[in-house]
């Protein structure tokens, strides 16, 4: 398995992933899949940083369009008071809804 986590929605990249580039990350995943079609590709997202459900769905679509076949979604928890605060705790029902969206995307 080749893993590269996008972590969050593009709107939050500057805040949550300074120095990272959303489009570059997607291209990395796509190019790896093109060169190694038999190796599963995976990414992960943290939720609770201020993203909307609609933004997460767009990220799911982007990941699928770039060849990603495995995904983890998790609740963001600030490791210390020096890190970004949790904006909200995502209810299990929302994770369930996003699971269904991801499965529908393939």
Which labels suit this protein?
alpha/beta, globular, Lipoyl synthase, 3 strands, Aldolase_TIM, 106 residues, 42% helix, three-stranded parallel beta sheet, 4 iron, 4 sulfur cluster binding, 4Fe-4S, Transcription Regulator spoIIAA
The oligomeric status of these chains comes to: single chain
Number of helices: 4
Proportion of residues in extended strands:
5-15%
- Low-confidence parts, pLDDT < 50 over ≥5 residues? none
Question: CATH top level?
Answer: Alpha Beta
User: Averaging pLDDT over every residue, what do you get?
Assistant: 97
Topology pattern, helix = H, strand = E: EHHEHEH
Biggest sheet, spatial arrangement of strands = 1-2-3
Which percent range fits the helix content? 40-55%
The major beta sheet can be summarized as: 3 strands, parallel
* Shape descriptor: globular
- Return the CATH topology: Transcription Regulator spoIIAA
N→C terminal distance = 17 Å
Task: Tell me the radius of gyration.
Answer: 14 Å
How many E strands?
A: 3
Number of domains: 1
What does this structure look like?
Helix 3 (about 55-65) links the parallel strand 2 (about 40-45) and strand 3 (about 70-75). Helix 3 runs parallel beside helix 4 (about 90-105). The chain has about 110 residues and is of the alpha/beta class. It is about 40% helix and about 15% strand. It has 4 helices and 3 strands; from the N terminus they run βααβαβα. It has helices at about 15, 20-35, 55-65, 90-105, and strands at about 1-5, 40-45, 70-75. Strands 1-2-3 form a 3-stranded parallel β-sheet. The protein has a single domain (about 1-105), classed as 2-Layer Sandwich (Transcription Regulator spoIIAA), CATH 3.30.750.
């Amino acid at each position: 398995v080749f893993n590269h986590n996008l972590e969050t929605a593009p709107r939050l990249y500057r805040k949550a992933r300074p120095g990272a580039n959303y489009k570059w990350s997607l291209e990395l995943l796509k190019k790896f899949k093109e060169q190694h079609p038999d190796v599963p590709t995976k990414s992960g997202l943290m939720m609770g940083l201020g993203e909307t459900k609609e933004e997460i769905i767009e990220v799911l679509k982007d990941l699928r369009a770039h060849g990603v076949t495995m995904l983890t979604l998790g609740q963001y928890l600030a490791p210390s008071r020096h890190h970004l605060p949790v904006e909200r705790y995502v209810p299990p029902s929302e994770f369930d809804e996003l699971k269904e969206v991801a499965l529908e995307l393939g």
